[in-house]
Sequence to fold (255 residues):
Amino acid sequence: MLAWERRQFDLAVSDVFGYHALQLGLPEIDTLQTNRMPHRCLAQSIDTPSLAQAAALRSRSALVTEFDALPFREHSLDLVTLPHGLELCPDPHAALAEVARVLLPEGRVIISGLNPASLWGFRQRRSHLYQRIGLGQTWVAGSHEWIGYWRLRDWLRLLSFEVESVRFGCYRPSFQNKQWLDRMAWMDPIGQSWWPIFGSTYFLVAVKRVRGMKLMGRAWKRHSTIGVSPVAAPVSVAGSAHQTSRNTENPIEFD
Fold:
């Protein structure tokens, strides 16, 4: 799964340009290694990391913070990657809202997560059932709730994100024996064609859209009208003079 996700991140971040990029969680893989931004940072949860994560943190400069309270200004980052960061966060919706706050308009967020509608998701739910009745423990330890693709898509839409691309992968069951994993390798190419949305992991790229006001011209057209101007009525000057002279010659007499 990590090998598949490394390939997806390397392809996705190589063409994203800007100045500031941030990776949230899972320091075992470097999701920004093919990106060419001058400022790249790794942020790890404030919880105590595992031994593998501690070794990865020592090899890379990292920032320890809460995912739902990032120490960055609003509209200050060009790219944020979350390799299973939402599953490792107690409040994934608040973490996603914080990512929307720090991203610039037209900035990108790249998310990888475990799909609950898959063979791996079925095993995780079965392990939760066994844990409740005291017959075992959670299969994927340390993870909180697995967020489905359609649910994540609704969250992104509410935060003014537009999904640019999505891919699913890892269709074979989760065997600990490498021999059985190799035997089930035929399920990966067939799963891409027959049941693409049931991959055990998904990879999603979304763009932050900011809807601004655009000044438009007048929505109506002026119709051409005929100009009308006042015109003086013609008066007969000769008739007026004749009437005046006649009244002068025969004046009216009053008693």
About this structure: The helical segments are 2-13, 51-59, 92-102, 119-132, 149-158, 178-183, 187-194, 237-249. The chain has a mean pLDDT of 77. DSSP finds eight helices and seven strands in the chain. Residues 84 and 161 are 19 Å apart (CA to CA).
